[in-house]
Amino acid sequence: MATRPGNETSSHQLIEMDQFETGSCQLESWNHSLSTMSAGDRVRFALKSFPGVHALTSSFGAQAAVSLHLLTREQPGIPVILLDTGYLFPETYQFIEQLTQRLDLNLQVYRSELSPAWQEARYGQRWEQGLDGIESYNQDNKVTPMLKALEELRVGTWFSGIRRVQASSRADTPFVQRIGEVYKVAPIADWNDRDIYRYLQANDLPYHPLWHEGYASIGDVHTTRRLADVASLEETRFNGLKRECGLHEINV
User: Fold this and answer.
1) What residues contact 214, with CB distance under 8 A and at least 6 apart?
2) pLDDT tens across 56-106, in order?
3) Is the pLDDT of residue 22 over 60?
4) 242: nearest Cα among 128, 135, 84, 124
5) Active-site position among 83, 245, 246, 248
6) Number of H-type helices and E-type strands within the chain
């Protein structure tokens, strides 16, 4: 059973990479070992063991402060990749400013080569054009900028704050997986909402301001809905047509 916030494991539980075989057996062993660690020890192990530049992606969503704090307290100055669509809520941009100053973030902002206005002039409002329109929009504003970030920053280890309870598409999220040559690490994959609350409280960290207005998952203004306005959590994004923006389905 995974350890929870406030129940840190001792450093002797950290494992050296050369103890594992290569390939799927290696990943299986890492995931088994990581499942016995606290989130903090998972972060420390990954920072110590996995290769290349380490970076964290953040959408600065409802509970983003947890991962930002976990990573920056262990590696100050770690690149924090933000994919800015130009359509984030004003409160999100304010939240970004707040956490950037509070945690002294090394923010790396990536965007589509075309401005939002130019995209609308060329394609129209793709978020109103069904699933195909949304996927095309996400490809240009999320996936392509992320691939550019990974390449330009020479990222070898990508940290993410995604959790299994957030959506059915994330239910099987491993603690570590390999995507091409990049290791992707999800230190809080097994956390529930109570774990998040306790961590935020213990470290005097804020939720996104829209959390208190009923927004459980926060993305672009045009495709984000309050939980009270839809039938399920998974319908709070992309008009209920899909849950993922493509970022966590990426093929490097």
Assistant:
1) 226, 227, 228
2) 999 999 999 999 999 999 999 999 999 999 999 999 999 999 999 999 999
3) no
4) 135
5) 245
6) 8, 6
pLDDT in tens, 96-142: 999 999 999 999 999 999 999 999 999 999 999 999 999 999 999 99
Residue with tokens 């069904």: 130
Contact residues for 8 (Cβ-Cβ < 8 A; gap 6+): 38, 40, 41
- Here the tokens at position 75 are 């590696």
pTM (two decimals): 0.86
Domains in the chain, please, with CATH?
Answer: 53-249 (3.40.50.620)
Which two structure tokens, joined as six digits, stand for 186?
């999800």
Contact of 34 with 176, CB cutoff 8 Å: yes
DSSP characters over 39-70: HHHHHHHHHHHS-SEEEEE----TTTHHHHHH
25 as an active site residue: the answer is no
Give the CA count within 13 Å in the CB-facing half-sphere of 193: 8
Beta strands in the chain (DSSP E): 53-57, 79-83, 106-110, 155-159, 176-179, 182-185
Give CA separation, 139 vs 123, 136, 222, 235, 248, in Å. Answer: 13, 5, 16, 20, 12
